[in-house]
Design a protein that fits this description.
This protein is of the alpha+beta class. The protein has two domains: 48 residues, Arc Repressor Mutant, subunit A (Orthogonal Bundle), CATH 1.10.10.10; 73 residues, 2-Layer Sandwich (Alpha-Beta Plaits), CATH 3.30.70.920. The chain contains five helices and four strands; from the N terminus they run H-H-H-E-H-E-E-H-E. It has a four-stranded antiparallel sheet with strand order 2-3-1-4. Strand 2 and strand 3 form a beta hairpin. Helix 1 crosses helix 3 and helix 2 packs across helix 3. The longest helix is centred in the first third of the chain and has 13 residues. It is elongated, with a radius of gyration of 20 Å. The N terminus is likely disordered.
């Protein structure tokens, strides 16, 4: 076990072995249970049981992660959404969450109400998407920032959870 493994937070049911399994899978999702077990000095059964629990609890999911640009998504953007009246924020968020172009959606405090990151085929597709959002009841205004180049697209680094 590595000395710099993330520390379990209060109320979190994950331990150092769980975090190590997740780290291996983030690095290479095809890593075998045998390799992980050997590196962590535990049984393959332990890895299999814990991995299955992580799946069942939706801590991890198995996906084929693609490079968006290499498969045809040429227009990335951040869309700030202003909602009026404010009580419609949840309803607007639920509607936007159903749109397949959305890769990230969060409620915010500050200048705008919802932060939306989208991946579109091209700028025409992006324009259609923003126009579609603008017609949702409660959307008062949008502000779009186009990403002209993505320098990093990654999963969270579990090492950031380490305590000092």
């Amino acid at each position: 076990m590595e000395k710099n493994s993330p520390t379990v937070n209060a109320g979190n049911s994950l331990d150092e072995i769980d975090f190590a399994i997740i780290s291996f899978m983030q690095n290479d999702g095809r890593t075998s249970f045998t390799v992980i077990a050997e590196k962590l000095n535990v049984s393959i059964g332990t890895i299999r049981t814990r991995f299955n629990r992580l799946l069942e609890e939706n801590v991890i999911t198995i996906i084929g992660r693609v490079d968006p640009g290499k498969v045809g998504f040429r227009s990335y953007a951040h869309v700030a959404v202003y909602v009026r009246p404010a009580h419609l924020k949840e309803q607007v968020a639920q509607t936007i969450a159903l749109m397949p172009e959305v890769s990230f959606l969060a409620g915010t405090f500050g200048e705008y109400d919802l932060e939306v990151d989208v991946m579109c085929r091209d700028n025409d597709h992006l324009v259609d998407f923003v126009n579609k959002i603008s017609t949702i009841e409660g959307v008062f205004q949008t502000k779009t920032t186009i990403y002209f180049k993505v320098y990093k697209y990654a999963q969270p680094d579990l090492a950031l959870l380490e305590t000092k």
